[in-house]
Amino acid sequence: MDQVLVEEFFIQGESICTNNAREATDSGKIPDLWAKFYAAHPDPKETAYGVYSGYESDASGEFTVTAGIKVASMADATVAIQAGTYLMFPANGVMPAAIIDAWNDVWAYFSRSQLHVRAYETDFEQYIGPESAIIHIGIRESSQLSVHAPD
How far apart are the C-alpha atoms of 23 and 64, rounded to whole Å? Predict the structure, then answer.
């Protein structure tokens, strides 16, 4: 996994509040959020973003999920991706199974890693194709960065 420095950028879309326990059941809200997004944005060439923000605490608390597209300014945005250091976790394969598997990799990594600490400020998924995405997880520790400006 690569560690990158991301510059602030902005996403406009619809948001819901949820938690991981709810999303592990049939009462999860994220699938409906994405269904609404893709109904409103049928162009597969448009880069989609899933943004996780407004964390109540950690992986066990409430958070906000926004499904949207990149916009030029905060005036047009629902949420800002905070500038900072992120770890990138690839998700390749049939969606949504591939993105769920990648999130499992994220949780496993942070449950055993002493090198990086999650910031719990903004995290995001960048969908770069119908079977390809990258999860960006904000971290507090930084070293040897490359600059990454998502499309």
Answer: 12
